[in-house]
Amino acid sequence: MITLEKLSEEPYASIICYPRPSKAEIKKRLKEMQKLGIEALEFRGEKEAFSIPVLGKGCVGIVTIAYRNGEKMALKIRRVDADRSRMKQEAKMLEKANSVRVGPKLLDVSKNFLLMQFIDDDLLPKWLEKPREKHK
Fold it and tell me: Which domains does the chain have, with CATH numbers?
């Protein structure tokens, strides 16, 4: 686990402000994480960003494990070059999916972060490849 204080240092700062970190943006994002109650991040997963393992990496964000009140959660971090300026619309879509019990539960949202339930299982494409009887 990497505490918020250590996240301002490289190589972690590059993940918080992927793909172009700046000191000012890192400072703003760390304050935003504090307001969400995030205490630390954990970097593991099958994807990589700047040679750091992460749970996911896409056009909009990087997904890592976050800890709040000692509880493990998934945190989507908005990329600085994303095609949207905030995570609010994505949060609304996740809330709709949650209303029919689909997807990880939305826990919190801010301008640059989407905090969700952490589900420690295969990603959907891999899960779909499993034989049917194992989906129970």
Answer: 2-135 (3.30.200.20)
